[in-house]
Write a structure and sequence with these properties.
The complex is a heterodimer of chains A (238) and B (143).
Chain A (H helix, E strand, L loop, with lengths): L6 H33 L13 H28 L4 H31 L7 H21 L9 H9 L3 H11 L9 E2 L2 E2 L3 H44 L1
Antiparallel strand pairs in A: 1-2
Helix pairs in contact in A: 1-7, 2-3, 2-5, 2-7, 3-4, 3-7, 4-6
Chain B lengths: L1 H28 L9 H7 L7 E7 L5 E2 L5 E7 L4 E7 L11 E8 L5 E9 L21
The chains are: A mainly alpha (238), B alpha+beta (143).
């Protein structure tokens, strides 16, 4: 990993990877969405509203995956002092918050016709809302950091501590009686019929690639900002 | 090198402490954080008459009865070991049906009937196209 501590080497890989992730993700999302909206059958109970799942599930996965990434980057920053870890964590925070919000919004829209309510304070929904607030706190702390383009140690510690919410979100429907249904896709298989399930894989992979592209773009922008600052400083001194 | 190992040890200890604290808090929250009582939970906890709670479980097959006034229904909620009769006046969600999950908000009346003032349908984790609907979803599992 320390081979990529050198920003020049990182940028050499990140530049083409951004394009591959971005276009690959867009293509997969497009195919998955067309399939999910027009090719799959409706659910026997939910009817057409089952199709919200093709956005809701990837959004939930990326909201939680995003914070897992922040936690790993925070650990790398605190222990190994990897110079790019702060830049990466900072780049993940905003898209992570966006997908968490998207998950909450799509869930609410699905909940109204299915459950008969826009919002209920059950374990899954509450812990997911807490995740959104954690993201807001992280972004605020990152913006308050003195480090240019990176984040302060306090921010990294917050990123690590906040990770405790991730297993809670994951287990919330198992530990507690909740309105949200239990996990459909487990190691033992899926309780979603394969005729409904297959576009979900496409959109999940597609949104994940898009997320990766956004993070790489944001990291490159941060690194460029650091270089501009450094150059301006040198020019001022000259 | 030494400083790095020190930070790693410190980091691991901190992580274990955080996870430990989280698990402790979760086990303490176990009862409070539950979104609803199952009929067994309600019996075990001895929920007093008139206290507002949520009752969740499966709607017993064939138990939905419409009262003559047209807006009141009666049905039975069960969790495979206990069952509670429920009375509700109002409009139920589309997905409210027999052998399906339900969460009722309300309180117990003196005669042991649960008087609901709001009904939510609980969807389970099974998704399938309409032509497959048959015996598959009638297993009546309570989550």
């Amino acid at each position: 990993m320390h081979g990529y501590a050198n920003p020049a080497r990182f940028l050499k890989v990140a530049r083409p990877l951004t394009a591959w992730f971005g276009w690959g993700g867009a293509l997969l999302i497009a195919v998955g969405m067309i399939a999910g909206l027009f090719l799959t059958p409706p659910d026997y109970l939910q009817g057409e509203s089952v199709r919200i799942m093709y956005v809701h599930v990837p959004a939930a996965w990326l909201g939680m995956g995003g914070w897992t990434g922040i936690a790993i980057a925070s650990l790398m920053q605190l222990v190994w002092r990897h110079p790019l870890s702060g830049v990466a964590a900072r780049a993940i925070a905003v898209p992570g918050a966006l997908f968490t919000a998207l998950c909450l919004i799509t869930g609410s829209i699905w909940g109204r016709p299915t459950w008969g309510t826009w919002w209920e304070w059950d374990g899954r929904m509450t812990s997911m809302l807490v995740l959104l607030f954690l993201y807001f706190g992280y972004v605020a702390l990152a913006n308050a950091s003195e480090e240019k383009g990176s984040v302060s140690r306090v921010t990294a510690i917050f990123g690590l501590v906040g990770a405790i919410n991730i297993p809670i979100i994951n287990r919330s429907v198992v530990w507690w009686n909740s309105l949200h249904q239990g996990p459909s896709i487990t190691l033992k298989g899926s309780t979603i019929d394969s005729s409904i399930l297959w576009p979900l894989g496409l959109t999940t992979l597609g949104f994940s690639l898009l997320f990766g592209a956004i993070v790489l773009m944001r990291m490159r922008a941060s690194l460029a900002e650091i270089r501009v600052e450094a150059r301006l400083k040198r020019m001022a001194e000259a | 090198m030494k400083a790095k190992h020190q930070r790693l040890t410190l980091g691991i200890i901190a992580l274990i402490a955080i996870i430990g604290a989280g698990l402790l808090a979760m086990s303490a929250l176990k009862d409070q954080a539950a979104y609803f009582y199952s009929p067994s939970d309600a019996k075990k906890a001895g929920v007093p008459t008139g206290q507002a709670i949520r009752l969740g479980g499966m709607v017993t097959g064939g138990s939905i009865v419409h009262e003559p006034d047209g807006v009141t229904i009666r049905f039975v909620v069960h969790d495979n070991s206990e069952s509670v009769p429920v009375r509700f006046k109002g409009i139920v969600p589309d997905l409210f049906k027999e052998n399906s999950g339900v969460v009722a908000e309300g309180s117990f009346a003196a005669d042991g009937t649960f008087v609901a003032d709001n009904i939510l349908a609980k969807h389970d984790e099974r998704y399938m196209p309409p032509q497959l609907e048959g015996e598959m979803h009638k297993t009546g599992k309570v989550e």
